[in-house]
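Narrative summary of target 7.
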Amino acid sequence: MAIRDLIPWTRGGDLETRRGGDPFFALQRDMNRLFDDFFRGFDLTPFGNRFSEGAMGWPKIEVSETEKDVKVLAELPGLEEKDVQVELANGVLAIKGEKKTETEDKDRLFSERFFGRFERRIPVEDVDVDNISATFKNGVLTVTMPKSPQAQSNVKRIAINGK
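Modeled conformation, tokenized:
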């Protein structure tokens, strides 16, 4: 069995790209998938696991919304608070950072771990910029963005009538 048989190949893609994120990122992902599929028949992968979709969508995030706020949770195992930056600009929340390796590449036989710089961008709207808070505990970053009073008042419940 080849080591490449141990690598999980995913086809999911992340939510931001499916909703029409950066078209160049989508093109790069599709080209990487094309070459990976082509070379898989020859038991070769030109770009290795580092450029597969799993690494490109790291860190994994969860976005939830209530009537009062929007919460973003990002899984960042192995990182500390000082390794992560959170910014909000022009209606886009950016989570950036870098995960550094502890070992040299020559010492590694196989790795499914991701090392290097990362950045995730989440579009948000109608949030109270002055009251955004972020916490980091046990490798999970939680960003809480209260909705602006105007956004909260724009919500209107619509009754559903049966026949």
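Confidence is low (pLDDT under 50) at residues 13-19, 43-56.
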